[in-house]
C-alpha cells in the first residue's frame, strides 16, 4: 500500500520523469535520502515500471492516429495467442486491447498518412492470424492524450 507522500512522488514523476532526486525531494518535502528510499521502494514494488521520452509523432512522420476494431473469425486460445504475438511485433501498433462487446480487439496505431494506413491495412492488419473483419476510425482531432494516471 502507498501513502500520500508516495502519491506525491508519483505525481511529480509523471509531470517530469527526468527530475533529479534533489528536486523531487524538495518538491515532496522530504530529505533526499528519504525520497531516494521511497523511490527505490516504489520501483521494486512495481508502481514505477519504467521511464521513456515522449516524441512528437508529426515530426517523425506518424501524424495519422487510427483506431481499429478487430473481429476474429474464431475466439479460441490459439487464435488469441497468435494474434497477440503478431501485434507485439508490429511497430505501427501502439496499443492493443482485448475488449468485451461487439468485436474482439481495439487497436491504436500511428502511420504517416491515409495512404500509409491503406498499405498497413492491406499488407498487415487483414493478414494477421484470425482477423475476419476490421472497422477503422481515423482521428480528426486529439482532444486529450495523456499517459498520466489520476493519482
TrEMBL record:
InterPro entries: ArsR-like_HTH, AsnC-type_HTH_dom, Dimeric_a/b-barrel, Tscrpt_reg_AsnC-like, Tscrpt_reg_AsnC/Lrp_C, WH-like_DNA-bd_sf, WH_DNA-bd_sf. Gene3D superfamilies: 3.30.70.920, Winged helix-like DNA-binding domain superfamily/Winged helix DNA-binding domain. CDD domains: HTH_ARSR. Keywords: Activator, DNA-binding, Transcription, Transcription regulation. GO terms for cellular component: cytosol. GO terms for molecular function: sequence-specific DNA binding. The keyword Transcription applies. This is Leucine-responsive regulatory protein.
Amino acid at each position: 500500500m502507498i501513502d500520500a507522500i508516495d502519491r506525491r512522488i508519483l505525481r511529480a514523476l509523471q509531470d517530469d520523469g527526468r527530475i533529479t532526486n534533489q528536486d523531487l525531494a524538495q518538491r515532496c518535502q522530504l530529505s533526499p535520502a528519504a525520497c531516494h528510499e521511497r523511490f527505490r521502494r516504489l520501483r521494486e514494488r512495481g508502481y514505477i515500471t519504467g521511464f521513456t521520452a515522449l516524441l512528437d509523432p508529426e515530426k517523425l512522420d506518424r501524424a495519422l492516429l487510427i483506431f481499429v476494431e478487430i473481429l476474429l473469425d474464431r475466439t479460441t486460445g490459439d487464435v488469441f495467442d497468435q494474434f497477440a504475438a503478431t501485434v507485439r511485433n508490429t511497430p505501427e501498433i501502439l496499443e492493443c486491447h482485448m475488449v468485451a462487446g461487439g468485436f474482439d480487439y481495439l487497436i491504436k496505431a500511428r502511420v504517416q498518412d491515409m495512404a500509409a494506413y491503406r498499405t498497413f491495412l492491406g499488407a498487415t492488419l487483414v493478414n494477421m492470424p484470425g482477423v475476419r473483419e476490421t472497422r477503422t476510425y481515423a482521428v480528426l482531432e486529439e482532444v486529450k492524450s495523456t499517459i498520466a494516471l489520476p493519482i
